[in-house]
Specification:
With about 270 residues, this protein is α/β, with parallel strands linked by helices. Among the domains are: about 60 residues, no CATH class; about 60 residues, Signal recognition particle alu RNA binding heterodimer, srp9/1; about 30 residues. Helices cover about 45% and strands about 10% of the residues. Strands 1-4-3-2-5 form a five-stranded mixed sheet. Strand 2 and strand 3 form a beta hairpin. Helix 1 runs antiparallel to helix 2. The chain is rod-shaped and about 175 Å long. InterPro entries: P-loop_NTPase (IPR027417). GO terms for molecular function: ATP-dependent peptidase activity. One of its GO terms (biological process) is proteolysis. Keywords: Membrane, Transit peptide, Transmembrane, Transmembrane helix.
Length: about 270
């Protein structure tokens, strides 16, 4: 009778497992415990061979949180949670430079991407997180990254800013040249322009004006007492009137004549 009872109990429990599909694991465990405690006693009393009950295998499914028993929920709550490999990494998207170096030396940084000017970088940690670091002037940083196997790249910059800078570099010289040209034209169009005083094209020119003296009727025949000066001035005047005769001989027009003498000797005349 004990053997028969154990067989009936196993069959009932297996049938119950089919109806309660989500609690199959716990039911199978209870059935196995009952069978293991009853079967040895039946074998000892009846001394008859015992055939184990057929076990119907069913694929267990993951129980939802709402259908879990209090015992299994307590196991989940008390089970130790695995520690994240990146628990020692700083939090936030902005790291300090010292924190960045410590993470690199521990092998927690996978790759870095420097900005175009090298003043900052964006890192990617081994867990996929990204952060930004302000980079000081450290000549050993590249060597440290290379020694720890960090992938290094440099940002190409914003193409829109590059185009704007290119246009600005072309436009600035054009505007500067146009401004200078406008100033020159304005200076030449007003007082001091061509033939006037103070224009930019008149730099280095004499500010004196040439005023033609009207005919006075004074000639060289009216001058006496300065024969040498008179002769030299006559040659200059003749050079101005007939330059071909003198240039054929290789002569050049003099820059001027220096008249020396006491007052009243006819220098002004």
């Amino acid at each position: 009778w004990l053997t028969l009872c154990s067989l009936l109990t196993s069959l009932v429990l297996n049938f119950y497992c089919l109806l309660q599909h989500q609690k199959l694991q716990e039911s199978c465990t209870i059935a196995a415990l009952l069978f293991s405690s009853v079967a040895p006693q039946a074998l000892a009393v009846d001394n008859a061979p015992l055939t184990p009950p057929p076990v119907i295998e069913a694929q267990p499914t993951k129980p939802s949180p709402s259908n879990q028993s209090p015992f299994s929920q307590n196991l989940l709550l008390t089970a130790p949670k695995p520690q994240s490999q990146s628990s020692d990494l700083p939090e936030g998207s902005q790291w300090r430079y010292s924190e960045f170096l410590n993470a690199v030396k521990k092998g927690k940084v996978e790759r870095v991407r420097f900005s175009k000017d090298g003043s900052a970088l964006q890192l990617t940690a081994v867990d996929g997180r990204r952060a930004t670091v302000i980079v000081p002037n450290d000549p050993d940083l590249i060597d440290i990254l290379a020694m720890n196997g960090v992938d290094i790249s440099v940002s190409e910059g914003d193409s829109g800013n590059g185009l704007f800078n290119f246009i600005g570099n072309l436009l600035f010289p054009f505007l500067a040249f146009a401004g200078l040209f406008f100033l020159f034209r304005r200076a030449q169009g007003g007082p001091g322009g061509p033939g006037g005083l103070g224009g930019p094209m008149d730099f280095g020119r004499s500010k004196s004006k040439f005023q033609e003296v009207p005919e006075t009727g004074v000639t060289f025949s009216d001058v006496a007492g300065a024969d040498q000066a008179k002769l030299e001035l006559q040659e200059v005047v003749d050079f101005l009137k007939n330059p071909d005769k003198y240039t054929a001989l290789g002569a050049k027009i003099p820059k001027g004549c220096l008249l020396v003498g006491p007052p009243g000797t006819g220098k002004t005349l």
